[in-house]
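On to our target:
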Amino acid sequence: MVTVLLHGLGADRHQPLGLFAPVLTTAERSDSVIALDVRAHGDSPLLGAAGDFALDALARELAATVTAATDGTPAEAEPVTLIGISMGAALALRIALGEMLPVRRAVFVRPAFAGESLPPNLRAFPVIAELLARLGPAAGAAAFRESSLYQHVAAASPLGASGLLGQFTAPDAAARAVRLSEIPRNSAYRDPAELAALAARGVSSLVVAAPRDPVHPMTVAEEWAAGLGSPLLRVPARDDGQPAQTAALRTGVADWLRG
């Protein structure tokens, strides 16, 4: 079994590794763990034009990397467990629905993408991209703090707002701003009915959600879980303590992987 970890928008492979390494060593018999940097993230040297940031294009790149790393074609490769966070959840879904890898199980953590292009919960990201391009990281962050988008998120979740501000200080944030402007314009699926295809092929899935998270609404996770016919793991809000959320996430995912 190969486990593939996929990070969120603006993060890198160390995000899911930090969260799930303890889970994978205690709950998962995996021959290998592959944590990937998406285009324009982490150590990836790739930038590109708008079309390069379509979810299916990114998913194909990631699947090709996994296939090359495991020395097989998609049909011949070992069974795969996908674990994706936010954007990584959407990419994991596209990989699984497109049968780009032989996915047996998938964990979708705090999904943010649904059936709509640029939904309200993701509208801050193109604004951040525009501010980075026009003002640079420091002045752009200051301007963003004054925006209604920031203030709306901060009122519901100070840690969620801090995460948005972190986009301004991410490595090479201005040079890589295209990721923030283009990726949120994707939808994860055409409609919830498309999700049922995963269960019909025998792919087991788990969806993880947390309350009071404006960028990753509970309603999106509920739609994913209903469409997939999967259990919904509810973990504590980040603003009630990140350690509590992390502990609940690790325990819940470990229990599901062992089941």
